[in-house]
């Protein structure tokens, strides 16, 4: 395992440890070739545990020690087991290795290679600068803790084996008007299994959804959305089938112990009749229980 805490001898960091300057191209491949490790027993244990109450204020997220950050233009990590700390990246962080940890950082986004597993992101700020060409974090096989994500198109792409916890997702890069307005999501799940979103805060998301679950690139199973403050969007949580209709419904979606704000166009949850469990401990901004029968189908 290699560890680097910036500042350091950059030549050593960039060459010997497998970190490199990226091309500067912020375009991302949103294809379907995601290698998801499943099932994950850790996810099963988290899902079985009793949920915590939702937060009452946004969680403390972002760099844990901003004064320690050292600025670099770009960062590409290619060595398994690398630990990177105390770095402010003007561009994106690209991860093309297994079991990589990045903590106490800033960047315009984090892109994880489809075959990479075991990524851990902690105590970071992701600022896309208001560009709808950039997502915050993508795409699978990662854990994100205490990230402050804003100014991007979608906060997280979570396409399987993902834990998002204690994060603050807000003020996404919304552009256009009416039918031409960008369709931003705080978290977008388009395929995969074992996704947990908990103890996080979503606000000022845009017009689509704070959390959007739709089988666009493959089957979706076992999504847990618990103990969050969720505000914004058309539906704040939207769960939808893919092109195949009812045959493409997400399965095993559990929504519990969340508090919903009032900033939504249609309602707190737009969900199908099957495949989703809505617990009675979800509440609106006044503390009133939101039962499944109160939610519109989509």
Question: How would you sum up this structure in a few lines?
Answer:
The chain is mainly β. The protein has helices at 10-16, 41-48, and strands at residues 3-5, 19-20, 70-72, 75-77, 83-89, 92-95, 101-107, 109-112, 119-127, 137-138, 142-150, 156-157, 162-165, 168-170, 185-189, 192-198, 201-203, 209-214, 220-226, 229-230, 235-240, 251-256, 259-260, 267-270, 276-278. The chain has a domain at 39-73 and 125-294: Pectate Lyase C-like, CATH 2.160.20.
Question: How would you describe the overall organization of this protein?
Answer:
By secondary structure, this protein is mainly beta. The protein has a domain at 39-73 and 125-294: Pectate Lyase C-like (3 Solenoid), CATH 2.160.20. 5% of the residues lie in helices and 38% in strands. It is built from two helices and 25 strands. The strands form three sheets. The chain has a 15-stranded parallel sheet that branches. Strands 2-4-6-8-10 form a five-stranded mixed sheet. Strands 12-15-18-21-24 form a five-stranded parallel sheet, with no helix packed on it. It is globular. The model is unreliable at 9-17 and 19-34 (pLDDT under 50).
């Amino acid at each position: 395992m290699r560890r680097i805490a910036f500042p350091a001898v950059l030549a050593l960091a960039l060459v010997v440890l497998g970190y490199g300057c990226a091309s500067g191209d912020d375009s991302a491949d949103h294809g379907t070739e995601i290698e998801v490790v499943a099932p994950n027993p850790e996810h099963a244990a988290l899902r079985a545990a009793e949920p915590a109450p939702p937060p009452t204020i946004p969680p403390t997220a972002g760099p844990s020690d901003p004064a320690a950050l050292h600025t670099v233009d770009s960062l590409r990590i290619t060595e398994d087991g690398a630990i990177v700390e105390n770095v402010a990246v003007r561009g994106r962080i690209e991860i093309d290795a297994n079991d990589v940890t990045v903590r106490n950082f800033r960047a315009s986004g984090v892109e994880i290679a489809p075959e990479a597993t075991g990524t851990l992101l902690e105590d970071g700020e992701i600022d896309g600068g208001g560009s709808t060409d950039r997502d915050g974090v993508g795409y699978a096989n990662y854990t994100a803790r205490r990230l402050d994500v804003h100014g991007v198109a979608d906060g997280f792409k979570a396409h399987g084996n993902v834990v998002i916890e204690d994060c603050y997702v807000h003020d996404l890069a919304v552009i256009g008007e009416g039918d031409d307005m960008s369709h931003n999501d705080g978290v977008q799940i388009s395929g995969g299994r074992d996704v947990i979103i908990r103890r996080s805060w979503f606000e000022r998301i845009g017009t689509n959804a704070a959390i959007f679950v739709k089988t666009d690139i493959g089957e979706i199973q076992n999504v847990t959305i618990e103990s969050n403050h969720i505000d914004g969007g058309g539906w704040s949580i939207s769960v939808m089938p893919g092109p195949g209709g009812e045959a493409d419904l997400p399965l095993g979606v559990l929504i519990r112990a969340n508090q919903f704000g009032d900033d939504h166009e249609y309602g707190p949850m737009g969900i199908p009749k099957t495949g989703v469990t809505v617990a009675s401990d979800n509440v609106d901004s006044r503390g009133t229980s939101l039962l499944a029968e109160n939610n519109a189908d989509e």
